[in-house]
């Protein structure tokens, strides 16, 4: 009898160990993980850049009295110094609904999965990724988030089932948290109209679990993409190609990502030799842009501006960008 009990105990322990190993292996297969040896970037705050950004925002506020100070957040990162990010921000740690800017985070997460071989590129996935970033398609974004998290939309679920579903949906959050990103929430689909069923359940019905970003986190991610810190050279180039914008291309769309946001100051100043990469976002209440700009003179900087409650004010974002450009040019 003792022998049988011992054998049973050993068998139970073996099964438990096997399940643990399997679960850990499965976890590694699906979780989005930082690149091997990844270290968070060094962020050096610049008093001079801080003063320039403060002045730029103050001028914009003075010219637009309908704006309140808390309705603008901005972060700038100078990428000319090697090995570190020289930066400044105003309201940069404030959580703001990011609209389509969140799609840049989903793109970066997908590229990590592709690089690690945890997701396989297909023509349909390639089409979805392109449409999400180039055309800012919400339907494409829904598909990409399903691929990233192994979740799908549908009916509401009982609490226990929903908790399992929600854990999977938080996979992108866990990835960015592992790299030291703070104060953000990136686990929701984007919609042209409204969310229904489990998509409303995951938002806690009143929008309490909506996507949220800060301009600090957004500027950091764009800078890490530009400098190739979170993906290999091939994946970095693919992301940059998707975000490449031409402000001088003809368009009839006033909200075009190339001309309706930071690119407008390049267009107005006829800076045809400057290069622009960006991801914009806008809703009926918000107008945001995350941009990286290079000039032939060697200027390289990231600028992220979020505005709330003034979605139709097209001049604010390019005005701030232009003033920051002038600050760099004075040096």
Throw out a few tags for this protein.
alpha+beta; 331 residues; seven-stranded mixed sheet; Beta-Lactamase; globular; 46% helix; 2 domains
Task: Summarize the amount of helix as a percent range.
Answer: 40-55%
| Helical/strand content category | alpha+beta
Lateral arrangement of strands in the main beta sheet = 1-3-2-7-6-5-4
Please report which band the strand proportion falls in: under 5%, 5-15%, 15-25%, 25-35%, 35-45% or over 45%. 5-15%
* Major sheet attributes: 7 strands, mixed
CATH first level of the largest domain: Alpha Beta
CATH fold topology of the largest domain? Beta-Lactamase
**Topology as H/E string?**
HEHEEHHHHHHHHEHEEEH
Query: Low-confidence parts lasting 5 or more residues at pLDDT below 50?
Result: 9-27
Distance between the first and last residues' Cα: 86 Å
Anisotropy-based shape:
globular
For the record, the CATH architecture of the largest domain stands as 2-Layer Sandwich
Number of helices: 12
Count of domains: 2
Q: What's the gyration radius in Å?
A: 22 Å
Tell how many strands the DSSP assignment holds: 7
Global mean pLDDT: 91
């Amino acid at each position: 009898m003792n022998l049988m009990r011992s054998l049973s105990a050993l068998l139970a322990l073996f099964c438990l160990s096997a399940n643990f190993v399997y679960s850990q292996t499965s976890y590694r297969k699906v979780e989005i993980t930082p690149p091997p040896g990844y270290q968070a970037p060094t962020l050096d705050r610049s008093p001079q850049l801080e003063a320039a950004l403060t002045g730029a925002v103050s001028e914009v506020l003075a010219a637009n009295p309908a704006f309140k100070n808390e309705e603008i957040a901005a972060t700038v990162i100078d990428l000319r110094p090697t090995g570190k990010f020289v930066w400044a921000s105003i309201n940069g740690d404030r959580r703001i609904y990011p609209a389509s800017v969140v799609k840049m985070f989903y793109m970066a997460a997908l590229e990590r999965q592709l690089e690690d071989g945890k997701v396989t590129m297909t023509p349909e996935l390639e089409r979805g990724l392109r449409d999400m970033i180039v055309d800012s398609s919400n339907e494409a974004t829904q598909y990409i988030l399903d691929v990233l998290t192994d979740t799908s939309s549908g009916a509401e679920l009982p609490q226990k089932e929903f908790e399992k579903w929600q854990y999977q949906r938080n996979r992108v959050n866990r990835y960015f948290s592992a790299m030291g990103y703070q104060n953000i929430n990136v686990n929701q689909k984007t919609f042209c109209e409204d969310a229904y069923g489990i998509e409303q359940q995951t938002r806690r019905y009143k929008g309490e679990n909506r996507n949220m970003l800060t301009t600090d986190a957004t500027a950091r991610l764009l800078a890490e993409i530009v400098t190739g810190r979170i993906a290999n050279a091939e994946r970095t180039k693919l992301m940059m190609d998707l975000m490449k914008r031409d402000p001088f291309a003809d368009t009839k769309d006033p909200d075009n990502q190339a001309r309706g946001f930071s690119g407008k100051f390049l267009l107005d100043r006829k800076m045809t030799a400057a290069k622009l990469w960006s991801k914009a976002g806008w809703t009926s209440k918000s107008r945001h842009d995350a941009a990286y700009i290079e000039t032939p003179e060697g200027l390289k900087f990231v600028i992220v501006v979020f505005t709330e409650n003034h979605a139709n004010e097209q001049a604010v974002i390019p005005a701030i960008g232009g003033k920051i450009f002038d600050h760099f040019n004075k040096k």
